[in-house]
Amino acid sequence: MPRRSWVTWDPTTESRRELMRRVPIRAAGIGRALAAVVAAVIVLTSCGGIPREGNVRAGQADLVDESPAQVFLPSGPQRDASAESILLGFIDAASSPENNYAIAREFLTPSFSADWDPTAGVIVDDGIGRVVTARDEQTIQVMVTPIAEVSATGEYRESDSTPVPLGYQFVQVDGQWRIQAAPNGTVIDENTFNDVFSASALYFFDPGFDMLVPDLRWFPRGASAPTKIVNAVLSGPSSWLVGAVATAFPDGTKLTADAVRVVRRNAMVDLNSEALNADRITLERMKAQLTASLPSGMSVKVTIDQNPQDIADLGPAVNPRVDARALILREGDFGFLAASGQAVTPVDGVSDAIVGLAPTAVSLAAGQQAAVALAEGGVWRVRAGNDPELVDSRAGLIAPSIDNDGYTWSVPMNQPNDIVVTGMDSAAVSVASPWPEATTIQAMKVARDGTRIVVAYTIGAEPRLAVVGILRKDGLPIGLTAPLQLMADSTPALDVAWVDELTVASLSTLATGAKQISARELGGASLVLESPPDAVALAGSNSLRDLRAITSSGGLHVQRGVGWQKRLDGVTVLATQQGIDK
C-alpha cells in the first residue's frame, strides 16, 4: 500500500520543514464550513458542507496562511512493484501538486511524464468503490464513481454518480513497470481533496460596477494559490456568468511573470503593459477585484511592468445584506417582526398597500421603497406613496421577484418559457428562457446583486434546479445565460431562496410525504437540513442559520439548536427581501 506523509509548508518563505505524521483535516466539509455543525443536524449529501453562520468568503483564508500549512507528500514508486501497485501509487501520488506533481511523474515513462497534464481536472470520489481490472499484462482499467468533478479552471460540480472507466497502459523501463498512457487530470478521494484543495470566491462586477459578484473556484492549497487565483481572475468568469458580470481588467491583461509574490500577507501583483489602458477608476476596480478574491486579510500591491501604481481602495458592496428580522404578513399587519415578542414594524409607504392586496407572496425591493406581490388578479407592484399597480394579469403566476434595478419578474407555472419583466415605467418585455424543454416552473428568485436567478422547474417528471445569469443592456434584462445545473432533489421544489451570495436553499416534498430542505453552494457542495413539518415556503436572511420557513397552517419556524422551533402562529406570508440599501 502506498505510504503517505505530511510536511509543513510555509508559503511566505517557501521552505519545507520537519516531516510530520499525517493528521486528517476535516474542517466540517468543503468550502465555508464550520466545525460547530453537528452531524445530527445535517446529513451531508456530497463531499462538503456549507456554513451556517456569518458571511465569511468561501475558504479564502485557508489557501495561504501566516502559519505553515500541511502539504501531502506521497511515496514514490517502489522497486519491483507490480503494474497494479504502480497504478495505485500513481493515483495516490497525483493527490500532491507539489513541484508540478513531481512525485506522481516518477510513476510515468520519461516521455509520457512531459505529456501528462494533471491540471486538466479532478475526479473526486469516495475512495472506496474503485474497481481495478487488468485487461492484459500492459493495460489496467480503473472504474471510479465520481461524487464531484473539478474542471481545469477550478469549477466544482457535483456528479450524478455515474461510473467512469479510466484506462492505463504500462511498459517496462529498466526492468520496472511505468505508465506510458493515462487520462489527463487526477483522481482524488474526498478526504484527501478536503486536505489538498480549498475554495476561493473570485469576484467580478455587476454590469453597473456597483457590486462584486462571486464565482467559486477550487485550487490546491499552498504557496502557488495566490498566483492561480489572480490568473483565474484575469481569465474571466465561469461560462455561465459570461455576459452577466463584468471585469475591470483590460483585454490582454496578464501577469508579467507567472507568479504572485507574497511577503507578510502582501500580494505583489505585476501586470503587463495592457493594464496601462486603465484609467484611475478602472485601476481601483481592478484592485478591488483582486483584494476581494485573494485570501482574507491579504493586501494587494499592483505594479505595471514593475512600475508602482498609487491605487486607492474602492470598497464596493459585496454580498448585499438584508434586514435580519423576518418580514411577514400577519393579522392585518405587514412588516418586520421584532427580535422578541410579536410586534410588527411596518415598512413606511408600503405596508398599508400590501395589506390591502391580501397577497400570497411578497418580495420587498432593496431600499424598501417598493415591493411586488402575488394577489387576486395577478402580480402587483407597490411603490411608496402610490396606489398598487397591476403589472401582470396572466393566470397561474408563481411568486414574483424584483431585482435591484426595479424590474419585476413574473411567469406562469405552466408556461415556464413565458418570462416577463416589467420596469418602473410599466413597460413589459419578454425574456427568452434557456430551458425551452421545461414543462412547469415552481419558483424563480433574483439574487440580491441583480446578476443571477435561481430557478426550480421540471422537464416532464424530472425536477431541475439551476442558476442563470441575467444579461442586461443599460439595466434592461434582455436574456439569460445557459443554466448552471445544481443537484436537484428527487421531487420538484416547492420554493427556493437565496441564503447569501453563494448559497441557495430549496424546499421539496419527498415521496414519503416528508418535507426536505437542501442547501447548495454555487460551485460547491450541498447538504440536507431537517425541515419543519408541512413547510410550504422559505425566506433567506444573512446566513444559513437564519433561514426561515412557513407552514401551511401559518406557523413561522426558525432554526434552534438541532432543529426548528415555531416562532409565531397566524402568519399568512413570509416575504423575501432584496437588501437594505439601494
From TrEMBL:
<feature type="domain" description="GerMN">
    <location>
        <begin position="226"/>
        <end position="313"/>
    </location>
</feature>
<dbReference type="InterPro" id="IPR059026">
    <property type="entry name" value="LpqB_N"/>
</dbReference>
<protein>
    <recommendedName>
        <fullName>GerMN domain-containing protein</fullName>
    </recommendedName>
</protein>
<dbReference type="InterPro" id="IPR018910">
    <property type="entry name" value="LpqB_C"/>
</dbReference>
<dbReference type="InterPro" id="IPR019606">
    <property type="entry name" value="GerMN"/>
</dbReference>
<dbReference type="Pfam" id="PF10647">
    <property type="entry name" value="Gmad1"/>
</dbReference>
<dbReference type="Pfam" id="PF10646">
    <property type="entry name" value="Germane"/>
</dbReference>
<dbReference type="Pfam" id="PF25976">
    <property type="entry name" value="LpqB_N"/>
</dbReference>
